[in-house]
Design goal:
Distance between the termini: 35 Å
Radius of gyration: 29 Å
Structural class: alpha+beta
Number of helices: 6
Length: 227
């Protein structure tokens, strides 16, 4: 009887270990699937809100353990731009910092950086393709702003000439007079920035809803597989 009990006990342990392995594999596979689905949903939220594909791709994910299976896998999703994402989840109010009175909101007329540079900006290094700061705009056009205030807002204009193909250029003497056979161009004030005291960001993103739906799907899949 002792020998038989040992055989039965050993066989049962092997069977239980196999079942545990199957469950761990299923749970880990489900976690991997649902983390990918949740990340995709969060990315689609960002693009649907008009925040762009680049911002959408700041959502990243990992599943732990990174190799093998576990009865308690963990899915982790985060954004590489947490402050920006959070501001669109909570609807943050943005105000000037460091004693500033106004927020300078760039218009479409503000040039974009052709390369990453600090370009004498108080904001430090800035990415390629982003709008120039007020300091950079003055340096770029070699001119100072004319600022007008109306209705609690400010409007920052700068005198420039139209570019040959698009955009605006510095109002140099050569461009004003006409050079190399080109017609003279007239300097004109162009609105570069709108000045406001605060900006209220709308609530465009929802983190709780997609997370709850993912948890419900995981539970439903496990129940369907093992109930």
């Amino acid at each position: 009887m002792k020998v038989l009990a040992g055989v039965v006990g050993g066989s049962l342990a092997v069977q239980m270990a196999a079942i545990e392995g199957d469950i761990a594999r299923d749970i880990t596979d489900i976690m991997n699937d649902e983390v990918d689905v949740l990340k995709l949903e969060l990315r689609q939220q960002v693009t649907s809100a008009g925040l762009g594909a680049r911002m959408a791709k700041t959502w990243r994910s990992n599943v732990y353990p990174k190799a093998g299976q576990s009865l308690n896998p963990a899915g982790y999703i985060w954004s590489a731009a947490p402050e920006i994402i959070s501001s669109y989840i909570d609807g943050a109010t943005i105000r000037p910092v460091n004693g500033g009175k106004w927020l300078w909101i760039p218009t479409k007329a503000v040039p974009r950086r052709r390369r990453a540079s600090n370009y004498a900006s108080s904001l430090g290094r800035r990415s390629r393709g982003t709008a120039m700061t007020p300091e950079e705009v003055e340096l770029h056009f070699n001119a100072e702003f004319d600022i007008a205030f109306e209705g609690g807002k400010g409007f920052a204009f700068i005198d420039v000439v139209s570019g040959v193909s698009r955009g605006y250029r510095e109002a140099t003497a050569g461009r004003l007079k006409g050079r190399r056979g080109m017609a003279p161009r007239k300097a004109k004030p162009v609105l570069m920035f709108t000045l406001v005291k605060a900006v209220k960001k709308p609530r465009l993103l929802d983190l709780d809803g997609p997370t709850r739906r993912a948890a419900d799907r995981i539970a439903a899949r496990l129940n369907a597989r093992w109930s």
